[in-house]
């Protein structure tokens, strides 16, 4: 259900507001950059980062036993990894990425899956921060002092493959963040061996449609219009999906700003479904 304006907490933080909070010992900043082409994101982190930021490796803080890319770790594994980054359960977390708004929402969602709601995404990310001439640091970062983070797993924010078709049959909306041509099966998948198309009953909403031209997230009012134009009831039950569970989190973030913070993500997404024998459709939804 969409939250009333007065009760809603914006999942985004502006560059201005973050700049005012730099140095706050209870504010922890994360660079959650990840690149589809597999190129290094840690190198650019060493070259330029927001002061005090730590690097969150999406491919490392993940399930080591899954053949799928960057799947959720166990609650215990997440707590151990985050604690080693110096982030505790009482801390407020701000996540950004080097692209503007791409992989940071995945880490925002991951924190929420493990019970930590005091997390926001930097609107416009590092590009906006640097373009405004705000402070940055470079060089190797000293290891963070360990903290104590306790996970509280929230299964309602995660969906698995065996839940998808029953969910759709029961009226839950499955919203696909991939480009429309991949959704229709007209363009190849970037990962080899995957079929083209989409889950029967899914809706298409390519993630760039929720972003402004400068890489920031659209306003609550504009997002409501975007979801409505795509045929999606943003106040209803929603699961988002994409290629590997990453850009699906952008749609979950957009829905949260639009007033629905309870959107789930299909973690395996098309990396799992496209490689399985699950039913698919091609063409328009």
Instruction: Count the E strands.
Output: 10
In angstroms, what is the radius of gyration? 18 Å
For the biggest sheet, the summary is: 5 strands, parallel
Mean pLDDT over all positions: 95
Count of runs of 4 or more consecutive helical residues: 10
What is the molecular shape? globular
Helix and strand run? EHEHEHEHEHEHEHEHEHEH
Strand portion: 5-15%
Share of helix among residues? 25-40%
Category by helix and strand content: alpha/beta
Low-confidence stretches: 1-8
Spatial order of strands in the largest sheet? 1-5-4-2-3
Kindly report how far apart the N and C termini lie.
24 Å
SSE map:
Layout lengths: L11 E2 L1 H7 L5 E5 L10 H6 L6 E2 L19 H10 L7 E5 L7 H10 L5 E4 L2 H7 L26 E2 L1 H9 L3 E4 L3 H4 L19 E2 L15 H10 L8 E4 L6 H10 L6 E3 L2 H5 L12
Parallel strand pairs: 1-5, 2-3, 2-4, 4-5, 6-10, 7-8, 7-9, 9-10
Helix pairs in contact: 4-9
Please provide a written account of the structure:
- The longest helix has 10 residues, at 75-84.
- Helix content is 27%, strand content 12%.
- It has 285 residues and is α/β, with parallel strands linked by helices.
- The strands form two sheets. Strands 1-5-4-2-3 form a five-stranded parallel beta sheet. Strands 6-10-9-7-8 form a five-stranded parallel beta sheet.
- It has helices at residues 15-21, 42-47, 75-84, 104-113, 125-131, 161-169, 180-183, 220-229, 248-257, 269-273; strands at 12-13, 27-31, 54-55, 92-96, 119-122, 158-159, 173-176, 203-204, 238-241, 264-266.
């Amino acid at each position: 259900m969409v939250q009333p304006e007065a009760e809603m907490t914006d999942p985004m933080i502006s560059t201005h507001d973050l700049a005012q909070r730099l140095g706050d010992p209870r504010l922890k900043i994360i660079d959650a950059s990840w690149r589809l082409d597999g190129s290094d994101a840690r190198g650019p982190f060493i070259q330029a980062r927001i002061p005090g930021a730590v690097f969150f490796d999406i491919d490392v803080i993940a399930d080591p036993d899954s053949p799928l890319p960057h799947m959720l770790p166990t609650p215990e594994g997440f707590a151990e990894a985050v604690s080693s980054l110096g982030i505790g359960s009482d801390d407020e977390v701000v996540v950004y990425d080097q692209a503007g708004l791409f992989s940071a929402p995945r880490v925002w969602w991951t924190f929420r899956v493990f019970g930590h709601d005091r997390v926001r995404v930097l609107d416009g990310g590092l590009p906006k921060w640097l373009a405004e001439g705000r402070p940055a640091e470079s060089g190797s970062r000293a290891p963070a002092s360990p903290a104590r983070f306790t996970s509280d797993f929230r299964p309602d924010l995660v969906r698995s493959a065996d839940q998808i078709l029953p969910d759709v049959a029961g009226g839950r909306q499955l919203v696909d963040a991939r480009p429309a041509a991949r959704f229709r099966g007209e363009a190849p998948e970037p990962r080899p061996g995957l079929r083209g198309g989409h889950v029967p009953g899914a809706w298409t909403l390519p993630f760039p449609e929720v972003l402004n031209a400068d890489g920031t997230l659209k306003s609550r009012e504009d997002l409501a219009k975007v979801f409505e134009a795509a045929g999606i009831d943003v106040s209803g039950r929603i699961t988002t999906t994409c290629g590997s569970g990453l850009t699906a989190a952008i749609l979950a973030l957009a829905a949260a700003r639009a007033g629905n913070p309870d959107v789930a993500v299909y973690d395996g997404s098309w990396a799992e479904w496209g490689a399985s024998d699950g039913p698919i459709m091609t063409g328009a939804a």
